[in-house]
Design goal:
alpha/beta, Calcium-transporting ATPase, cytoplasmic domain N, 2 domains, seven-stranded mixed beta sheet, 12 helices, elongated, binds adenosine-5'-diphosphate, binds magnesium ion, P-type Cu(+) transporter
Length: 289
Amino acid sequence: ATPTSIMVGTGRAAELGVLFRKGDALQRLEATGIVAFDKTGTLTEGRPSLVRIVTAEGVDEAALLTRVASAEQGSEHPIARALEQAAEGPLVQPASVEAIAGHGLAAEVDGRRLLIGAARLMTREAIDIAPLAAAHDEVAKAGQTPVLVAEDGRIVAVFGIADAVKPGARAVVAALHEQGLRTALITGDTVATAQAIAAQLGIDHVEAEVLPEGKLDAVKRLRAAHGPVAFVGDGINDAPALAEAEVGIAIGTGTDIAIESADVVLRSGDPRGVVEALHLSRAVLRNIR
Ligand code: ADP
Ligand code: MG
């Protein structure tokens, strides 16, 4: 591409709120084989809420929720905000809290030892989830994130956390498929939850239960199978994958680190900007060939 046509193209993109931080991203975008999306905050609003509680026998639901929210007070995870909002009583100061990346957290609240997080946290801590396994699977199949809670070594509850899909998400996936591209979802969420969301949006391929440091490897796997990758993300966790992808596309409402690692920024946070960017790259490169 000539420098002038690239300047005109990136200028038009800017009017649409699509900011090309690097001019050669237009060429790399045109050659993309697959567009991979982060889930939370990218395809979903990133403002999850608690929609379902299933407890084991004899558990006081309100008191448990207060302890869980107390443990989550210091966490940055959106799930923590959903749990805090749902709690009714005043929260207490936990004696200790330990975040376990990609898994959840361990805390001591009111003299009880709590584990709060994904099923793999319970596996790691040798907690038997059998009494609530059916509820866990049901929550996940509904596209909600299941959060399990154990107290003093016993599984006591599963929470269903729902995060609404962004209005433009389905249309973006359909438009990318129409353009002959493949699509993928990369998330730390459990397989069943990720598959339910992918099915809802029409996404081809799912990389689930990806640990924070694993998104970069997921991009490499997708590249090996489908060619050059465009990765769309918003979080701190997404920065390495944004840098690794042929085209890193950051959601402008996301974290600064994600934006700094990206080649393209969608200023409005609307995922439809991905399609605008793609159209533009094709139009510009068609013009100059
Ligand atoms: P994601 O951004 O996809 O949620 P994370 O690596 O941050 O990925 O988290 C992966 C999973 O670990 C979450 O889906 C959740 O099940 C669990 N988890 C992480 N942090 C917390 C937390 N503070 N409270 C409860 N569960 C958590
Ligand atoms: Mg995210």
